[in-house]
Amino acid sequence: MWGDFSAEVIKLVKRPANWLLLAVAMVLGLLFTYVVPYAGFKGATTNATGGRGLAAMLPANLVGNSVAGLPVFMGAIMVIVGVLAVGGEYGWNTWKTVLTQGPSRLAVFAGKVGALAVAALSFVVAFFAVGVAASMVIASLEDQSLALPSAGDLLVGVGAGWLMAGCWTAFGVLLAVLLRGVALAVGLGLVWLLAVQNLITLLAAPLLPWVAQAQKGLPGPNAGALAAALGSATDTPGVEAIVGGAQAALVLAVYLVGFLAVGAALLRRRDIL
Amino acid sequence: MEPVVTRGLTKRYGELVAVADLDLVVRAGEVYGFLGPNGAGKTTTLRMLLGLVRPTAGEVLLHGRPPGALEGIGALIEGPAFYPYLSGRDNLRVMARHARVADRRVDVVLEMVDLTGRGKDRYGAYSLGMKQRLGVAAALLKDPRLLVLDEPTNGLDPAGMADMRAMVRRLGAAGCTVLISSHLLGEVEQICDRVGVIAQGRLVGEGTVADLRGAADLRVVAAPLERAAGHARDLLGADAVSLVDGGLHLAVEAARAGEINSSLVCAGVTVSELRMVERDLEETFFALTGGESRVG
Predict the structure, then answer these.
(1) For residue A166, what are the contacts with CB-CB under 8 A and spacing of at least 6?
(2) How far is C-alpha B221 from the geometric centre of its chain's CA atoms?
(3) Which range has the worst mean pLDDT, A50-59, B103-112, B236-245, B278-287?
(4) Which of A40, B150, B258, B262 is 20 to 30 Å from the Cα of B13, by its Cα?
(5) In angstroms, rounded to a whole number, what is the distance separating the alpha carbons of residues A148 and A64?
């Protein structure tokens, strides 16, 4: 089990695509959470430009800002991370090479999940780190308070971010096992996250009351609700307080476990061709 | 305990029967050739041996146990497969961890397949021959007592093929049991102690290469051929006489050549050629596999 975990860590860390995804996620977060709003704030001639204002960019808002992307955009990146880690084994036919070394399929799967959990946490910590740096710079430039949220709030924020990131990564893992590859799994995962989920929330839910109720059981809206509970701005796509934070966290945890359990069962049962 | 035993091993994909009721025994220390045309069910059988594919029926015992942890078993199935972005060495490090083997073993197996100098290069940049050798290196990580190699010379140039055969012979001589599948008769003939022939998912013949060929025949070229054939049938029985390439092939021992010669001459037949011929393995193979297969 430890051997499988450390093997998976080597595969993840040495894969250039994962570093590219991390860099893209950090740049996107920096750009849309800090650079663009700050440029808008500096360029505004009056206060009536519809911007969130300076307060939203300060270190005090670090938690909400750092997890705001996870319900949709950063979530999509985590799906790709999950799909790549598992789908690559199908695409390169490496399952047979790994499994003929003797480890059980479940041990390899557990090793993969463990390594991906570390990767998901690293992504979230990186989002927070970018946020600390950017908000500190803005606060210094604008002569505002440099005070960060309390250690407890930070811990809860990182934990909640980890849960959201982990849930999407696990979704990617399941898709890759289900579809035995990368291309279709990434494609369908992104269609779900970026298109279907938004259509449900923006189009179907306002029209049909039962859809509005049903979406309370879907992972995306629950991630949005968890982000909203942590202070993410509700004008961020996907962020909406449709349920309470605790309930949202519970639903996400159930999905996380469910995705992994179904993935493990499928991997264990199917032939490796 | 025999390294490989299968009993009634069967794999069906819907209507298609890939492997049917296969009973196979590979004995300790032998190099066993698993021979069959493409699509005969060789790879499916090997995948079942290693637990990658679940049999529809029957059982597999490796060293007396069902496939599981694959202790002391190394395998290269249907070509090498590694992570293209990792170096050859890192690929082996990854596999060593999955195999619960110490990292230092990686350098040993790299040396064995002569890849030490290229270990730091990306796998994606390897030539086909180097990839194949890395595949063998991964199969050797556990210092296996049983090595399963599925068409290990596929895609190799003649020098690479010769190297691969030499390595298999070396491993066999060192006491490692080797189960090697191939569709190349010459290859099997050169390196295997025993051969199993599979066609359409069934084992259609098993034995040493000499067994499979059967005993050698006495070739007689004589004139008139008709009279010679008739006389030979009277002498040996119709079953022992066949007409091949304008001569007679007689299923008799070499010691009877003189007696048959004088008997034919006395019967007024002129004998112009008399020699023992071994049956071609290819002929045997076609006879066993139904003759429709293309083999190299």
Answers:
(1) A78, A116, A117, A120, A256
(2) 34
(3) B278-287
(4) B150
(5) 12
pLDDT of residue B243: 86
Please enumerate residues of A whose Cβ is less than 8 A from a Cβ of B. Answer: 3-4, 6-7, 10-11, 14-17, 88, 92-104, 108, 271-273
Facing B71 at nearest CB: one of A17, A102, A104: A102
Residue matched to tokens 């068409």: B151
Share of chain A above pLDDT 70, in %: 97
Which pLDDT band, with edges at 50, 70 and 90, does A46 fall under?
Answer: low
Has residue B291 been placed in a domain?
no
Whether B153 and B191 have beta carbons less than 8 Å apart is answered as no
Question: What ipTM describes this predicted complex?
Answer: 0.92
Query: pLDDT tens-digit profile of B4-59?
Result: 999 999 999 999 999 999 999 999 999 999 988 888 899 999 999 999 999 999 99
Number of domains in chain B: 2
B248 and B133 part of one domain: no
Tell me: cis bond preceding A209? Omega within 30 of 0 counts: no
What is the C-alpha separation between B56 and B48, in angstroms, rounded? 10
Q: pLDDT tens digits, residue range B254-286?
A: 888 899 999 999 989 999 999 988 776 777 777
* Closest Cα in chain B to A269: B54
Where are chain A's structural domains?
Answer: 2-269
Domain that holds residue B262: 215-278
Confidence class of residue A47 from pLDDT cuts 50, 70 and 90?
low
d(CA A107, nearest CA chain B) in Å? 9
Nearest-CA neighbor of B135 among B85, B83, B60, B182? B83
Report the distance separating Cα A240 and Cα A234, nearest Å. 6
- Name the closest residue on chain A to residue B70, using Cα atoms: A102
Interatomic CA distance for residues A218 and A199, integer angstroms: 13
Q: B interface mutation test: which of A15, A86, A90, A100 has the most B CBs within 10 A?
A: A100
Are A104 and B78 inside 8 Å of each other by CB? no
| Contact check, Cβ <8 Å, B51/A99 | yes
Inter-chain touch B52–A96, beta carbons under 8 Å: yes
List chain B residues with CB under 8 Å of A10. 86, 90, 93-94, 97
What the block records as the tokens of A248 is 């949202």
Residue A271 to residue B81, Cβ atoms within 8 A: no
The CATH number assigned to the domain holding B262 equals 3.30.70
pTM of the entire structure? Answer: 0.87
| Whole-number percent of chain B with pLDDT over 70 | 97
Tokens 């005070």 correspond to A147
Classify residue A126 by burial, with Cβ atoms within 10 Å: 0-12, 13-18, 19+: middle
Q: What is the pLDDT of residue B82?
A: 98
Tell me how close the Cα of A266 comes to any Cα of chain B, in angstroms: 13
Retrieve residue B168's tokens: 């298999």
